[in-house]
Write a structure and sequence with these properties.
Elements: E1 6-8, H1 22-32, H2 83-92, E2 130-131, E3 140-147, H3 153-162, E4 167-170, H4 172-175, H5 179-187, E5 191-194, H6 207-225, H7 241-249, E6 255-256, E7 260-262, E8 266-269, E9 281-285, H8 289-292, H9 296-309, E10 313-315, H10 317-320
Parallel strand pairs: 2-6, 3-4, 3-9, 3-10, 4-5, 7-9
Antiparallel strand pairs: 1-8, 7-8
Helix pairs in contact: 1-2, 6-7
Length: 321
């Protein structure tokens, strides 16, 4: 993506706590709302300490509600919490304000077409659409994370407790050493999508090489997580006609890119107005202290400040696409 002017994000205080069963967490947080926060640290094996939730899946699949865009039934838990509990959860994780609650997803997903200027030679409406914003009037944006390099247990805990939906686009060469981490992520309602096997510059590859990168990653995700992705993001946002035809041939329905990119200390924008818009897709990456000088939870605090301050809620991309 072309680099543009930057806007500094606010930084929140770091305050994650030890993950406990849901009832105990809520009781402790109500106390924390009037006294001190929880002790730092996130322990336990993946899946041992999080609230049980169904895995994400296609509309009508196991563990999903009908008539609400296929959202996993465990999401939107915080919509049922009192303002005091939501404020305490936000305080625990260093957010100045609780995340806004997204509306229920549409019963019928919006029709998405390729963004003007993003077409390929010889392409037509039969190819997966390439887009940066989902057509919606809902004041929502979509948070997406690419590659899978950083496997931070604290991220799973934070997003679970705050009920912030996000979508992962995975490259196998960075994921294969810890498939279990992303299995737990899937169990918590996160969609696991295709970002190729090895993160290459796809237009520089032959047709057969591109096919291996895209379709073999489809097979890996299906084998490891039981579902074949329908969303694909080409590395660096670069693609050609072969990319889209290959993606379609192995089950891809849509190619979401991004309209803004989040870093721990700033945002980079695609649009001239340097702002968020309803339906914008936000890109960030699985990165940690070594690359960015902060944890994944620190990154989330920063981007959520921008999203919430601008009056947006985060919705689940797979509910709209």
């Amino acid at each position: 993506m072309k680099r543009s002017r930057s806007v500094v994000l606010g930084r929140g205080a770091r305050g994650p706590g030890r993950h406990r069963p849901a009832c105990a967490v809520l009781a402790a947080l109500l106390v924390a709302a009037v006294c001190s926060g929880c002790a730092s640290g996130a322990g336990g094996r993946f899946g041992d300490e999080h609230r049980a939730r169904p895995a994400a899946g296609p509309p009508g699949g196991p563990g999903q509600r009908a008539g609400q865009g296929g959202a996993p039934a465990g999401l939107r838990e915080n919509a049922r919490f009192s303002p005091a509990v939501r404020a305490a959860l936000a305080k625990k994780w260093g957010l100045a304000r609780p995340p806004l609650i997204a509306p229920l997803p549409p019963a019928v997903k919006p029709h998405i077409t390729t963004r003007e200027g993003f077409e390929v030679n010889g392409g037509d409406d039969s190819l997966p659409p390439v887009f940066t914003t989902v057509p919606t009037k809902d004041r929502v944006v979509f948070l997406t994370m690419d590659d899978g390099a950083e496997k931070d247990p604290e991220l799973l805990q934070m997003m679970d407790e705050l009920d912030i939906p996000y979508s992962a686009f995975l490259s196998d060469y960075l994921v294969r050493d810890s498939y279990g981490y992303f299995l737990e992520m899937q169990r918590l309602g996160v969609g696991l999508n295709n970002h190729t096997l090895n993160h290459p510059y796809l237009p520089g590859l032959s047709y057969s090489e591109q096919r291996s990168e895209i379709c073999d990653q489809q097979a890996v995700i299906e084998k490891q997580y039981g579902q074949r992705p329908t969303l694909f993001r080409p590395p660096y946002g670069n693609y050609n006609g072969d990319t889209l035809r290959i993606a379609k041939s192995c089950g891809i329905k849509a190619v979401p890119l991004w309209n803004a990119e989040a870093f721990p200390d700033h945002m980079e924008w695609r649009e001239e107005d340097q702002d968020l818009h309803p339906g914008d897709i936000i890109l960030t990456h699985f990165r940690g202290r070594k690359e960015w000088g902060t944890s994944m939870s620190g990154l989330v605090r920063a981007v959520m400040k921008t999203i919430t301050d601008k009056g947006y809620a985060v919705a689940r991309l797979e509910d709209y696409v």
